[in-house]
Amino acid sequence: MEEEPPASDLAARGDLRSALPFLPVVLRGGALFWPPAAQESLRALALGPDVSRVASGDVLADALTDLRLALALPALPQRVADGLALFFDDLLSRAQARGWFAEVVPNLARLLLRLPTLLEDHYAKAGHGASGLRVLASQDAGLVLLSQELVAALLTCALFCLFPTAGRAQACLPTINFDGLFTALIHRSQSQEQKVRCLVHYFERVTDSTPTGFVSFERKVLPRQPVSDGITYPDIHAWSASSAPLCQFRVFSSGFIEDEEQEALQVDFANKYLGGGALSRGCVQEEIRFMINPELILGMLFMASMEDNEAIEIFGAERFSQYMGYGSSFRFVGDYLDTKPFDSVGRRRTRIVAIDALDCPARLHYESDCLLREVNKAFCGFFDQSKCQLYVKLFQDSHNKDNFPSINSNEYIGVSTGNWGCGAFGGNPEIKSMIQWIAASQALRPFVNYYTFEDASLERLEEVIQWILRHGWTVSELWHMLIEYSSQRLRGETYKGFFAWLLPSNRPNNEVHYMSE
Question: Domain named PARG catalytic Macro: which ranges (predicted)?
Answer without folding.
Answer: 237-459
